[in-house]
Amino acid sequence: MQRGGSEMALKRDAILDRMIESLKPGKEKNTFRAQNILLAGPWGTGKTTLLNALARNSVISQNYFVIRFSPWEQLANEDPLVGFLSYLRLLARNLEKAECSFGENFWGNTVEILVPKAIEALKKFPIGRAVTSMGGGVATLIDCANSPEKLRQFSPLDVMRRNFADLLSVLAKAAGRDRCLLLIDDLDRTKPEHAVDILDALYHLFMPHPDEKEDDNIRLSTVWAVNITMLEEFLYDHYRNQPSFDATAYLTKLFHKRINVPPLYYSKPMGGEGDNIERLSESEELWRKQFEELGNDLQGEEKTWTSVFAKEGIAKALAEGLNFSVFGNLRLHKCIREQCCEYWRWKSGRNLHSSGIGIAQLVRDAQLIALVQAYPGFREFIAIYDGMWPEFQNRVNDRIDHPAFTPIVTPCYRHIDDPNLLSLLTVLGALRYDRGRYISVPGGQLRLGQDLAELLRLGF
Question: Read out DSSP for 39-52?
């Protein structure tokens, strides 16, 4: 599945339905509840695809003016808040070009003044200070930004928040909607300091708060697609001087609801509701579809291999053989499947007889290719050199003996703490675990090195 493509991730309909259910109008008088939704999942689990599907959904598109914002793609080295406000400015200008009405000189009198003055006011008056409710509109905000005396007496935060709410409301009405839906993606791919700044600034200036209702003129809901592990690391690093900081409590304060997106994994088939039909695991289904595509592409002598891919249980065996968390990434899993099929097609094109190819060999081929794809450099720097195995093994056991880990600075050992790598090497017969230590299997290491070197020789 390509990132952000139109293909809907496998069995993700229930997740999409939960988001739509949370955002659709209420039963009484077309009521809405402004809220912030955290769409949490590891990288490569289909979060962007879900956002795309959400934006295209008719319930959403009929009720919301959808704003897409990716800090990673749309921010360079500029201040995150400046970048977001500049993006709103661009949206408003595009709507004007589309002949949407903003009223008399809306852009010139409001947004062009509000955006730079809001940024200037924020720099003079940090968000973290206590706020005092202030009446008025843009003019009051500008007065606060320009007057040191007023800055000493008031915070412009409430004024900015109300004016930004008005701005979003105007944008929505210009697009023929009553409210806005802000979809934020790739926050976990931007600079750590930017991620925290964006989260903090948008919460204080735009996002609905737990005690607010649409009656408070907050006509904005947000959905954030985030790798929660990365975001928590960003937060812990940002607040590293506060030992009692709790990232979970912090995020719970900001978001009304958390919806989790699962990674790809193999699970034993279960009977369907009310019948005895077995339901395929997602990874097994992906392998079956991959073989169908490959079978359709094979021609001439290659056709002799179609019987290999039609073997009963081959998709299940491959799904089980790659059931490691590192392969839960849909993009990585797709890359592995495509590389495997390209390798097998290459073998079929060299008139290699398919009669001697069993399921076990195909699974090992897939595990070898997966090892190369998931751990770049391990093959080239360690696996194909007999003399590097003892050093690698000693470093692994040293990390076990000394839990207070120090950062790894040698590139070829950067994955040494990953249990997926060690488990995969064990399955491939190069290592075995005994009494708290990893022990070499000389014959297994030699075979693994030779197999990986052969793949490298062929360009895989």
Answer: EE--TTSSHHHHHH
Take residue 460 and report the two structure tokens written for it. Answer: 């895989």
Per-residue tokens: 261: 């997106």
Minimal CA–CA distance to 165: which of 130, 117, 123, 213?
A: 213
Residue of 129, 158, 156, 131 lying closest to 145 (CA atoms): 156
Return the CATH class of domain 13-260. Answer: alpha beta
Give CA–CA dist 111/224, Å, rounded.
25
Whole-angstrom distance, CA of residue 369 vs CA of residue 453: 12
Q: For the residues of 146-193, what is the DSSP string, one character each?
A: H-HHHHHH--SHHHHHHHHHHHHHHHHHHTT-SEEEEEEE-GGGS-HH
**E-state strands within 267-363:** 270-271, 278-279
Q: What is the pLDDT confidence band of residue 225, given thresholds at 50, 70 and 90? A: very high
Q: Where are the beta strands (DSSP E) in 18-170?
A: 36-40, 64-69
Could you tell me which residues are beta bridge partners of residue 69? 184
Which amino acid appears at position 384 of this protein? I
Of residues 398 and 29, more confidently modeled: 398
Region 232-250: mean pLDDT is: 90
Q: What's the Cα-to-Cα distance from 315 to each of 28, 281, 287, 324, rounded to whole Å? A: 49, 10, 5, 16
Cα(274)–Cα(447) distance, integer angstroms: 48
The structural domains of the chain, with segments of one domain joined by +, span: 13-260, 278-457
Query: Which DSSP symbol is given to 404?
Result: S
Contacts 24+ apart (CB under 8 A), 256-259: 256/35, 256/36, 256/37, 256/208, 256/210, 257/22, 257/35, 257/36, 257/37, 257/38, 258/37, 258/38, 258/40, 259/15, 259/18, 259/19, 259/37, 259/38, 259/39, 259/40
CA distance 84 to 30: 30
Cβ–Cβ contacts within 10 Å for residue 370, how many? 25
Q: What span, in angstroms and rounded, lies between the C-alpha atoms of 406 and 408?
A: 6
- Which of 354, 399, 379 lies closest to 449 in space, CA to CA? 379
* Cα separation, 329 vs 265, whole angstroms: 9
Q: What is the spatial distance between Cα 356 and Cα 352, in angstroms, rounded to a whole number?
A: 9
- Give percent of the chain above pLDDT 70: 72
| 321 CB-contact burial (10 Å; exposed 0-12 / middle 13-18 / buried 19+) | buried
Rg (C-alpha) for the chain, rounded Å, is 28
Per-residue pLDDT, 269: 58
Residue at token pair 């069995």: 11
CA angle 380, 448, 459 (to 5 degrees): 45
